[in-house]
Amino acid sequence: MGRECLDILKNLDIPPDTANPNADPREDPAKIIEALDKHFKPLRNTVYERYKFNTCEQAQGEKIETYVARLRKLISTCDYGELKDEMLRDRIVLGIRDNKVRTRLLKKKNLTLQDALDECKTNETTSRQIKVIENGETVNYTSNGETVNYTSKGTTHRGPPNFGEETFPRSPRGLGAGASRKPKAAGSCFACGRSDHFAKDDRCPARGRKCSNCGMLNHFRAVCRGKRGQEVKKSGSTCNSVEGETDPGTDHYVFSMGGQAQKRAGTIDVKIGGVGVAGILIDSGATCNIISKGTWESLKGQRVEVRDQRKGGRNLYAYGSNKPLPTLGTFKAEVVCLSNAAATEAEVVVMDGPGRNLLSKETAEKLGGAASWPSADGSSKQPPGRSDGRGA
Questions:
Q1: Going by DSSP bridges, is the β-strand pair 324-325/315-318 parallel, antiparallel, or unpaired?
Q2: Would you say 56 and 69 are in contact if contact means Cβ atoms under 8 Å apart?
Q3: Where's the CCHC-type domain (predicted)?
């Protein structure tokens, strides 16, 4: 006991023990503690304590567990005795912020404290889940008995579901896949060079016209990207290179087929969404990143991290053809070049079938993924920041 406490004890009036009136009460520890408790503990006003309890309401954003904990602390000084649980139940019903839950509680017969707690907790959990689902923030699904979390609106997720499942946002009624997206900044038609339309527009003067440079249909010599006399194999070919333009339909067109692109392009090893993809083909004529269905299935099996996964959204056309190539959809993911650790976020189109994995010109330039790669005309092009192959 400290000096200050001893001074207080000397001045306290400690009544003697009635059973032993001759004993000095200041030598009895129990008497000393009782006297000090009465001195230091303020007098408790039960009416005021009950007022504080009966006016305690749930705060904005306060969880029900936190609110109930505050009520239990307040009711401990109210001296309700056997009525403690009933009074706590009543305060929860009257003090919660959700009027719909209060209505359900008031309709229940023989409502107990535990019933009120269970109803409030269930409503709180359900409301949070509904908000998450409506905002598209997090969705739980089960794959091979394992629960996995993924996000569908701008946040990272693991283990994406297959394209076309109900977890993906649908296009507005009456619009085709990808038509709900806003078009990017206007560009020029790659078929004729004019800026008042896009290549699929019926107004394009190049529709049905043969290029005098490469002999292909539907574009002029001035915008031709092929070599003179270039021919396209019509059977047994594999899509290797994609060229596109920015138009409301987000269409892309295949310019190189079969082994032609393989001869004029390099390959690098990358990671897509944290999963390695070896020997992805770089083509400076491509504006769209492509992976095959087999690669996509492999990435999913390794729990690739992707976002903005959508069914459809990109139409790919073989050069000179009006029939779109089959695609499953698109997603966005971080692409990392394994040779220099450069990284960028890129959109990837998934083909509905086999094919060569492609890296677009834009993505390759951001990665600086190879010492050089051939351009569409066969000339060598240095990555950004390099002029001699030795780095900046």
A1: antiparallel
A2: no
A3: 188-206, 210-226
- Give CA–CA dist 62/71, Å, rounded: 13
Q: Are 351 and 239 in contact (CB under 8 A)?
A: yes
Tell me which amino acid residue 216 is. M
Q: What is the dihedral of CA 168, 174, 177, 181, to 10 degrees?
A: -80
On whether the CB atoms of residues 198 and 189 are closer than 8 A, the answer is yes
Angle between helices 84-95 and 64-75 (to 10 degrees): 140
Domains in the chain, please, with CATH? 3-40 (no CATH), 46-134 (1.10.1200.30), 188-231 (no CATH), 237-381 (2.40.70.10)
pLDDT band at 64 (very low <50, low <70, confident <90, very high): very high
- pLDDT of 144 above 80: no
